[in-house]
UniProtKB/TrEMBL annotation:
Signal peptide: none
This enzyme's EC code(s): 2.7.11.1
Organism: Amycolatopsis thailandensis
Domain Protein kinase: 11-275
Every CBM2 domain range: 330-435
Protein name: non-specific serine/threonine protein kinase
Length: 435
């Protein structure tokens, strides 16, 4: 297609402004409405004999999906047209550049700016999810930054909407490998949590300067690393890093939904606590981590679950008279609270740890504290949802205002980043006490 060509009798092509694997984007003039638009010429899949037909079907499907979404942080689709068997999508024209280009020119962005852009994109994706639409290729290249600094998500070409068929082919993994979620890289069907993970990967890249799994030119090796969930240890610390690690949890069931991701990112951008009262509690993992063994945060884990936790009540010692004769020992008192450690993700030299605290009483619990002894060389950083105190190698994590009171059988969570030394030592004894 050449400059000055007219598409569907009304869209005059002016100049090429972008090109990717799925198509070429032109700046064009809608001569009927006298406005500037972007026209995306979809490229055929030459690996199949029915490529032209599939391109047209794909364009129609993409147009139906994208046109359903009306959001200030999503690119608007106006029309779908066909010229000589080639499909074209007509969209709003945005003087902008991809986040990929911005990062290449300026390098990693400040945490506050990343949180601001992330909250905008999360708001658009949350609206899409609410309407039954998956994006399936959330990457820096599909995030456009306008001249006034706003972010917009583009290219729902890999989208799958409820009620729409897929045109990706049997057994084909779709999306950009460096930003895929582990479950998709492992061959599972993508879902809403997959978009959450890809958004986390994209924002991690904006903050750290590289994707969480690296950018290996060997795509098979990269996919294997993604499937294992072995992210590169983040260099940055702080509230945004805490949020990103929640989005990047290997188990899809442990990630927040997109609306919750938007709330957390907005809080970081505004300088507020990212984990607020009323925040959705993360469910217990539906499956164990595939990591065979790790030592993190003073916790020895096998298959992602703590080995050797001791749970006790903090009852005072009460003197009693010695019995006149041996008597049968009374059953041990049921602990008032229980704790469970899990590895949410792992990288060389560190891990993200999640701790679930459960009220095991039939009445409400008004406070709790979990303590353990750190093995030599282990350090804790970026604690969320708890208050940390440390005396030497003894660590205590207690409740904060909003999660202090637990109803009967109720749970809450806290988590942190653990860096490990060379000598992990034996499994520590962890104690959950009520106050």
């Amino acid at each position: 297609m050449n400059r000055d060509a007219i598409i569907a009798g009304r869209y005059r092509l002016e100049r090429e402004v972008g090109r990717g694997a799925m198509g070429v984007v032109w700046r064009a003039r809608d001569e009927r409405l006298d406005r500037t638009v972007a026209v995306k010429q979809l490229l055929p899949d030459n690996s199949r004999d029915d490529a032209p037909f599939r391109s047209i079907v794909r364009a129609m499907r993409e147009a139906r999906v994208a046109a359903r979404l009306k959001h200030p942080h999503a690119v608007t689709v106006y029309d779908v047209a066909e010229q000589d068997g080639t499909p074209f999508l007509v969209m709003e024209f945005l003087p902008s550049r991809p986040l990929t280009e911005l990062l290449a020119d300026d390098g990693p962005l400040p945490a506050g700016r990343v949180a601001e852009l992330g909250a905008q994109i999360a708001s658009a994706l949350a609206a899409a999810h609410e309407d039954g639409i998956l994006h399936r290729d959330v990457t820096p290249n599909n995030i456009l930054i306008t001249k006034d600094g706003q972010a917009k998500i583009a290219d729902f070409g890999l989208s799958h909407a409820t009620g729409e068929g897929t045109m990706t082919g049997d057994g084909l993994v779709v999306g950009t490998p460096a930003f895929l979620s582990p479950e998709v890289a492992d061959g599972e069907e993508p879902g809403y949590p997959s978009d959450v993970f890809s958004l986390g990967s994209t924002l991690y890249t904006a903050l750290e300067g590289a994707p969480p799994f690296g950018a290996d030119g060997n795509q098979i090796a990269l996919l294997k690393r993604v499937a294992r969930g072995e992210i590169t240890a983040p260099r940055a610390t702080g509230p945004l890093t805490d949020v990103l690690l929640r989005l990047l949890r290997r188990d899809p069931g442990e990630r927040p939904d997109m609306a919750e991701a938007e709330r957390m990112l907005s809080a970081v951008a505004d300088g507020r606590p990212a984990i607020l009262a009323g925040t959705k509690r993360l469910p217990a993992p539906a499956r164990r981590s595939r990591l065979p063994f790790a030592i993190a945060g003073g916790v020895v884990v096998a298959g992602g679950v703590l080995a050797g936790i001791l749970l006790v009540d903090d009852a005072p010692d009460v003197p009693v008279a010695a019995p006149a004769a041996p008597a049968a020992s009374a059953p041990a008192a049921k602990p008032m609270c229980e704790a469970r450690y899990e590895v949410a993700s792992r990288w060389p030299g560190g891990s993200e740890i999640r701790v679930s605290v459960r009220n095991s009483q039939d009445t409400r619990l008004t406070g709790w504290e979990v303590s353990w002894t750190l093995p030599p060389g282990t350090k804790i950083a970026n604690l969320w949802n708890g208050s940390l105190a440390q005396d030497g190698d003894r660590v205590r994590v207690s409740e904060v205002d909003w999660n202090a009171v637990l109803p009967a059988g109720g749970t809450t969570t806290f988590g942190f980043i653990a860096t490990t030394g060379d000598d992990g030592g034996d499994a520590p004894v962890a104690e959950c006490r009520s106050s």
